[in-house]
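R.M. (postdoc): so does anyone remember the format we settled on? I'll just put the structure tokens first.
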């Protein structure tokens, strides 16, 4: 393509080619994170936008800025301080922030997300400097629409992440600190899938907290009351969803870290009518299913023949069960209820049966108690009885997968797929080194946290081999699903779209070419993975009749180019001066700037 030839899809509203229109100058420009490029502003930009005298004389490249930022990052004394430094950088220069993360993805991923983001959330009220996102108050339901309306016009917001802060990253109820998980998830959508960072909205639903430490902390910034339940809570959530849909009808809603009793219930209620997604329920299930499918491909087994035991029947465990059930039902052409017969859930009381106390999400997996009369229902006993080929751990019970249990798996099937997924690392059901040792290198393993490769005498004639262990990281799937839903403007997220996303990830498994390689692609490859996932999601949305965007390309190559053209990249595009009169809100630095709209009461009335 010649320098003067425009990309095929440069006319699209979300196109990332060509210059960026800018109607502000001077300090206003430098205080706008998506315009500011600090010392990298060219001589022409400094003159055109009245920046001379506001910046040091030397003009630097983005690469030089990244080097300096990395030096500053590494000088911080611990990961929490590094997390705070990165937050500050994001508030100043979005391109530099995301380019630094992109260039050091493997190193920094655990700092901007789990486990360090969990530490930041726990310390939210103590580290607080300036607010980010929308804080909604359950005692002020009448202002939900008003407060949301301040964040933009209907076309301004593409992606909303909302949390009520009840079940954060394995650290439990963090109340208003849940805003930071919404912020962190949106960082990942941009980093991994190119969602435009100035077109996102993090939200926390402050319903109080049952965390006594927070309630007794004089510095706690959230509602100082016990967490609301029941009708008032449901009305609050409903007011949020309805207001978000009315004010931002093109936006995709991502529910994050809601409590066990609410996560699935809320998703099931809104999913038939709203383009929404719950990463704890669906994202974990999708990435786990991708690992299972890759493992079964390596062992030349079919998904329809899966017999799976899940130890830990909470939100994540049931979410995984649901994704596997739906995929098996689709592949075999059977009902979901019939497919559920191939999945066994085990929790603290043992195997879930018709005599066990259970919630609605678990109901379909409950086994007929009469079939287990006189039989042990412990994890080991169930494995010996049914001889599964897949074992999943979401129990947070450390070392639950004992040598006896792992060897029972290996006795029942030649190459068991064993996935201890509990986080953080100290809560893993087993470590990969033990699983591989106990199965003589035959197990196919993926984990919920990163682990080093494992060496052992499992090659031909006892030769030493090194087996890389995949991390079941939701970030290889949920950003691509969101990207596909946003670009297709899907009216809802269907089962077919999720199964398509899973197949997109599984098709890129390194283990398909080398069985000592990881079952899943790593985060360093995630942008390419997100393109593939988005493509599959968009095609499924079109097939299901829920894609509302017009002129979506049909051929794979054209569709991939269409997707890439609309993915935000951390590069400095030229700034093009435009006059404020008639300029877009983005050009006037008004996106995500509360108070930049007409009087909010007038907007709510108009909407």
């Amino acid at each position: 393509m010649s320098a003067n030839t425009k990309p095929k899809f440069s006319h699209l509203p979300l196109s990332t080619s060509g210059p960026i229109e800018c109607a502000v100058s001077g300090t206003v420009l430098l205080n706008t994170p998506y315009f500011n490029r600090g010392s990298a502003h060219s001589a022409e930009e400094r003159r055109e936008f009245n920046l001379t005298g506001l910046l040091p004389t030397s003009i630097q490249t983005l690469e030089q800025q990244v080097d300096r930022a990395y030096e500053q990052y590494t000088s911080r004394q611990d990961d929490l301080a590094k997390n705070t430094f990165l937050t500050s950088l994001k508030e100043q220069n979005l391109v530099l922030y995301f380019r630094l993360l992109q260039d050091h993805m493997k190193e920094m991923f655990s700092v901007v997300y789990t486990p360090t983001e969990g530490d930041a959330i726990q310390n939210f009220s103590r580290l607080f400097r300036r607010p980010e996102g929308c804080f909604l108050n359950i005692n002020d339901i009448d202002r939900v629409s008003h407060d949301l309306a301040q964040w933009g016009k209907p076309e301004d917001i593409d992606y909303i992440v909302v949390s009520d802060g009840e079940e954060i990253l394995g650290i439990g109820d963090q109340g208003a600190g849940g805003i930071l998980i919404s912020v962190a998830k949106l960082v990942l959508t941009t980093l991994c899938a190119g969602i435009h960072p100035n077109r996102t909205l993090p939200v926390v639903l402050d319903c109080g907290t049952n965390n006594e430490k927070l309630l007794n902390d004089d510095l706690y910034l959230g509602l100082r009351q016990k967490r609301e339940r029941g009708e008032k809570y449901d009305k609050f959530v409903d007011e949020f969803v309805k207001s978000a849909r009315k004010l931002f009808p093109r936006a995709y809603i991502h529910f994050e870290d809601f409590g066990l009793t609410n996560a699935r219930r809320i998703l099931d209620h809104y999913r038939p009518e709203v383009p929404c997604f719950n990463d704890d329920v669906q994202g974990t299930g999708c990435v786990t299913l991708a690992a299972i499918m890759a493992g079964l491909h390596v062992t030349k087994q079919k998904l329809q023949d899966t017999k799976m035991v899940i130890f830990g029947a909470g939100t994540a465990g049931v979410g995984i069960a649901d994704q596997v059930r739906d995929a098996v039902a689709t592949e075999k052409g059977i009902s979901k209820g019939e497919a559920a017969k191939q999945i066994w859930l085990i929790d603290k009381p043992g195997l879930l049966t018709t005599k066990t106390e259970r919630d609605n999400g678990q109901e379909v997996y409950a086994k007929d108690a009469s079939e287990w009369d006189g039989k042990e229902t412990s994890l080991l006993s169930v494995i010996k009885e049914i001889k599964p080929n897949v074992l999943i751990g979401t129990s947070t019970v450390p070392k639950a997968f004992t040598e006896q249990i792992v060897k029972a798996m290996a006795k029942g099937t030649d190459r068991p797929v064993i996935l201890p997924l509990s986080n953080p690392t100290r809560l893993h059901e087993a470590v990969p080194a033990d699983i591989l040792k106990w199965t003589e290198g035959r197990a196919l393993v993926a984990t919920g946290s990163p682990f080093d490769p494992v060496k052992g005498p499992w090659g031909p004639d006892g030769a030493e081999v090194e087996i890389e262990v995949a991390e079941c990281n939701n970030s290889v799937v949920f950003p691509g699903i969101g990207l596909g839903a946003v670009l297709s403007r899907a009216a809802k997220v269907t089962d077919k779209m999720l199964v398509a996303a899973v197949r997109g990830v599984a098709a890129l498994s390194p283990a398909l070419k080398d069985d000592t390689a990881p079952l899943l692609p790593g985060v360093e490859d995630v942008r390419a993975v997100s393109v593939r996932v988005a493509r599959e999601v968009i095609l499924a949305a079109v097939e299901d009749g829920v894609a509302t965007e017009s002129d979506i390309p049909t051929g794979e190559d054209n569709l991939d180019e269409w997707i890439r053209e609309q993915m935000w990249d951390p590069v400095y595009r030229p700034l093009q001066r435009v006059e404020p009169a008639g300029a877009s809100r983005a050009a006037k630095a008004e996106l995500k700037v509360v108070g930049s709209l007409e009087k909010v009461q007038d907007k709510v009335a108009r909407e």
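R.M.: ...and that's the designed sequence above, right after the tokens. Also worth knowing: The first helix runs from residue 26 to 30. The chain has a mean pLDDT of 94.
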